[in-house]
TrEMBL record:
<keyword id="KW-0413">Isomerase</keyword>
<feature type="binding site">
    <location>
        <begin position="99"/>
        <end position="102"/>
    </location>
    <ligand>
        <name>substrate</name>
    </ligand>
</feature>
<feature type="active site" description="Tele-phosphohistidine intermediate">
    <location>
        <position position="20"/>
    </location>
</feature>
<dbReference type="GO" id="GO:0016791">
    <property type="term" value="F:phosphatase activity"/>
</dbReference>
<keyword id="KW-0324">Glycolysis</keyword>
<comment type="similarity">
    <text>Belongs to the phosphoglycerate mutase family. BPG-dependent PGAM subfamily.</text>
</comment>
<dbReference type="GO" id="GO:0006096">
    <property type="term" value="P:glycolytic process"/>
</dbReference>
<dbReference type="InterPro" id="IPR013078">
    <property type="entry name" value="His_Pase_superF_clade-1"/>
</dbReference>
<dbReference type="InterPro" id="IPR001345">
    <property type="entry name" value="PG/BPGM_mutase_AS"/>
</dbReference>
<dbReference type="GO" id="GO:0004082">
    <property type="term" value="F:bisphosphoglycerate mutase activity"/>
</dbReference>
<dbReference type="InterPro" id="IPR005952">
    <property type="entry name" value="Phosphogly_mut1"/>
</dbReference>
<feature type="binding site">
    <location>
        <begin position="19"/>
        <end position="26"/>
    </location>
    <ligand>
        <name>substrate</name>
    </ligand>
</feature>
<dbReference type="InterPro" id="IPR029033">
    <property type="entry name" value="His_PPase_superfam"/>
</dbReference>
<feature type="binding site">
    <location>
        <position position="72"/>
    </location>
    <ligand>
        <name>substrate</name>
    </ligand>
</feature>
<feature type="binding site">
    <location>
        <begin position="126"/>
        <end position="127"/>
    </location>
    <ligand>
        <name>substrate</name>
    </ligand>
</feature>
<protein>
    <recommendedName>
        <fullName>Phosphoglycerate mutase</fullName>
        <ecNumber>5.4.2.11</ecNumber>
        <ecNumber>5.4.2.4</ecNumber>
    </recommendedName>
</protein>
<dbReference type="GO" id="GO:0004619">
    <property type="term" value="F:phosphoglycerate mutase activity"/>
</dbReference>
Length: 261
């Protein structure tokens, strides 16, 4: 009874958001989206020495984990939980937390695309709230890998995307955010390991940002982001806090914002 009573007496609860570690496609500067690219060796190290190390240093503890169906999200979770010695935690893997689908841009180098179509067009596809890449079709070498991925069996056929804007991602993520928020208000300590655009979508919903504000947000790989909530009202106590070296975080934000080489 004392454990339950103590949980009820807690007035606030924290949510930790983490973008997965560097993937093989990140390493090659390719649009990835729903292609199931694994973590690179550097991404595994980021999960260990950036995400898990900072969470351990801050003495964070969790009751439950949310992630996507994509292996780069799940692999990051596995490394973090292993390093934190809590691999027993329940994990909710939800397709609605998959990265934004980049349509027919999937597998294309961002710099090569910018050289062909111009940086403004590529940044529109990447950052404009309603920027919609061309839909993926059978000419794309990743079309069938994505369409036939057994991890996506739970996706309703009418909701399986061929391309997405950020607006569409926010709409997709909104019901999951309501589920996460219920957990927060129950006092469940959550770790959510997702993707760049999905983290931005959650941040928009959490902070009620405008479209223009969220377009300017960049999420570095594996840097833990903490929100503190009032359990009774569900409202934020203050703003977003990053765990880690601030100079490193700013450097990685700029890297994410750039089109790259």
């Amino acid at each position: 009874m004392s454990c339950k009573r103590n949980r009820l007496m807690v007035k606030s609860n924290q949510l930790v958001l983490v973008r997965h570690g560097e993937s093989e496609f990140n390493l090659k500067n390719l649009f990835c989206g729903w292609h199931d690219a694994p973590l690179s060796a550097g991404g595994i190290e980021e999960a260990r020495s950036v995400a898990a190390a900072n969470l351990n240093r801050a003495k964070m503890t969790f009751d439950k984990v949310y992630c996507s169906k994509l292996c780069r999200s799940r692999e990051t979770v596995e490394v973090i939980l292993s390093e934190m010695k809590c691999s027993f935690l329940p994990i909710v893997s939800d397709w609605r937390l998959n990265e934004r689908h980049y349509g027919n841009l999937t597998g294309i180098n961002k710099r090569a695309l910018a050289n062909e179509y111009g940086e403004e067009m590529v940044q529109c596809w990447r950052r404009n709230y309603d920027g919609l890449p061309p839909a993926i079709d059978t000419s794309n070498i990743y079309y069938y890998q994505i369409a036939n991925n057994p991890a996506f069996q739970e996706v309703p056929p009418t909701e399986f995307p061929l391309t997405e804007s950020m607006r569409m991602c926010v709409d997709r993520v909104s019901p999951v955010w309501l589920e996460i928020k219920k957990d927060i208000q129950k006092g469940t300590r959550l770790l959510v390991v997702v993707h760049g655009t999905i983290a931005r979508s959650l941040i928009k919903l959490i902070e009620d940002m405008t479209e223009e504000q969220i377009e300017k947000v960049n999420i570095p790989n594996c840097v833990p982001m903490i929100y503190d909530f009032n359990i009774k009202t569900g409202k934020l106590n203050g703003g977003l806090k990053y765990l880690g070296d601030l100079e490193y975080i700013e450097k990685m934000k700029k890297k994410v914002a750039a089109i790259g080489d």
